[in-house]
Amino acid sequence: MKILKLIFLCFAMLQFSNAFSQTITLAVEATYPKDQAEFVYEPLKNWLEKKTGLTVEIESADNYYFYWRSARNNQPDFTLDASHVAAFRMQEKNYQPLARVQEDVSYHLISNYEPAAGQSIDEFLVGNRVVTLPNPNMGSVLFDEWFTDLFLQPQKIVTALSWEDVIEQVFAQSADAAIIPSSLSELYPNFARLKESKKYPGLTFLASPNVSPQLKESFKNAILSIGEDDESYDILAELNSDGFVEVNPENYKDLAEILTKLMY
């Protein structure tokens, strides 16, 4: 009888060990080239592995289009998404929100120059080049919402692979204006701010419905503990955030429609 109990105990310990030594995938928003993304998310990867005992494999798509295609077709264990992509996964894929950066994000139309007195923004930018990230990044989505008059429309440039590349194109004058997130706009106060979107929730962590409740809880606790000590400061610096908070799903209501409209 004692031998059977010992065997059962060893089996249970093995199962517990396997649960917390497995490899999990974390898909991240494609706002960096792949090699740069590995560097940017290395502190986050190391922190999550230390706190959960999991081996974390970062998945970064080559560009925003492939990131969106992957969101439609694949099911990674965990994700770090822009809010509209997070809303899509929550609505269409039954992903569960775990935490989000505490800052909301808005998007700014910026330029090195300002319209002349009495000149509208559409008139000012007609025929000019406005750079942002490709569809369905919110910068590109907002371009399509803001510029609907075919006769007063700037040229949308979506060749950039990162927000830094967007800014560099404006500085190099290969673009006349850009649509960028507020966290980046704040770093360049000398740009003229021509238009600003409403605020959206910031980057959001989600868990697949296939992940066990125990792993979800372990992952969530690890995320919410970021910022509690100096060791995790690099994570917040790379994500332009002061910390993570719980998610209110109501703040994501209707955001999924931004993407579901693109599917039909």
TrEMBL record:
Signal peptide: 1-21
Tagged with keyword Aminoacyl-tRNA synthetase: no
Keyword Plastid: no
One Pfam family here: Phosphonate-bd
Keywords on record: Signal
Domain of life: Bacteria
The protein's name: ABC-type phosphate/phosphonate transport system substrate-binding protein
Gene source species: Marinicella litoralis
Lineage summary: Bacteria, Pseudomonadati, Pseudomonadota, Gammaproteobacteria, Lysobacterales
